[in-house]
């Protein structure tokens, strides 16, 4: 059922395949069984939005000043300051995206303090999805750091339908903490689903119970 509801993407578009796969990370990592659940950290995304929207607001303001107040008004000091601020914000935004976020698609933290950072990329001229994972303890010591890759065909069908379970199986096989979470899920669900979050499984079970009533 999950695969039927999944959107189709162009199989010859690496960017679309990557985006769809990236989007599948959050629902998986945020529904793992406790204590393995990762709460997503939105700090870097919020900073990017703040820089971007501030630059757009300044651009809109200077455009309004030019259209409504005339050429003379745009020669004032505050307009020059606004234009300078726009270029500074755009430069900061570019730096933030390429140097700070650096292709990071997920950053999360467990209740026990461990954090995970996942960066994704697509290999040029090959249908390979590549992840760089860094898993740290609460004291910021690196527990696991590795790069993994696999072809998109592992979790995409020939017609471009995304299948989450093979993708999650791959992640659980390659990443230690997710492997432990998969084992815990398998125990709690009696082997029904080794990689699907227990919360989702419990929710579905509750729905099924209500239907039977």
TrEMBL record:
What organism is this sequence from? Answer: Aspergillus ochraceoroseus
GO aspect biological process, one term: protein targeting to ER
Q: Which family does it belong to?
A: Belongs to the SPCS2 family.
Q: Which residue ranges does UniProt annotate as crossing the membrane?
A: 47-65, 77-100
Lineage, uppermost ranks: Eukaryota, Fungi, Dikarya, Ascomycota, Pezizomycotina
Keyword Repeat assigned to the entry: answer is: no
- Tell me, what's a Pfam family for it? SPC25
The entry's keywords: Endoplasmic reticulum, Membrane, Transmembrane, Transmembrane helix
Query: What name appears for this protein in its UniProt entry?
Result: Signal peptidase complex subunit 2
Biased composition regions of type Low complexity, renumbered to the chain: 190-201
| Residue ranges, annotated region (Disordered) | 184-213
Membrane topology per record = Multi-pass membrane protein
Q: Where in the cell is it found?
A: Endoplasmic reticulum membrane
Lineage top rank: taxon: Eukaryota
Q: What does this protein do?
A: Component of the signal peptidase complex (SPC) which catalyzes the cleavage of N-terminal signal sequences from nascent proteins as they are translocated into the lumen of the endoplasmic reticulum. Enhances the enzymatic activity of SPC and facilitates the interactions between different components of the translocation site.
Gene Ontology cellular-component annotations: signal peptidase complex
């Amino acid at each position: 059922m999950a695969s039927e509801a999944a959107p189709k993407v162009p199989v010859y578009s690496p960017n679309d395949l990557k985006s769809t796969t990236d989007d599948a990370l959050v629902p998986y990592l945020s529904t793992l069984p406790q204590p393995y659940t990762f709460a997503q950290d939105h700090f870097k995304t919020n900073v990017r939005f703040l820089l971007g929207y501030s630059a757009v607001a300044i651009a809109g303001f200077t455009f309004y000043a030019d259209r409504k107040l005339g050429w003379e008004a745009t020669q004032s000091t505050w307009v020059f300051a606004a234009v300078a601020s726009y270029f500074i914000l755009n430069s900061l935004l570019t730096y933030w995206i390429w140097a700070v976020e650096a292709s990071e698609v997920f950053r999360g933290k467990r209740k026990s303090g461990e954090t995970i950072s996942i960066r994704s990329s697509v290999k040029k001229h090959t249908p390979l999805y590549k992840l760089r994972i860094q898993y740290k303890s609460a004291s910021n010591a690196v527990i696991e750091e590795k790069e993994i890759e696999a072809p998109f065909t592992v979790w995409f069908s020939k017609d471009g339908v995304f299948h989450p379970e093979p993708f999650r199986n791959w992640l659980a096989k390659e990443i230690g903490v997710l492997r432990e979470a998969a084992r815990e899920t398998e125990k709690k669900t009696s082997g029904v689903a080794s990689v699907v979050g227990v919360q989702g499984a419990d929710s579905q079970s509750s729905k099924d119970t209500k239907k039977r009533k």
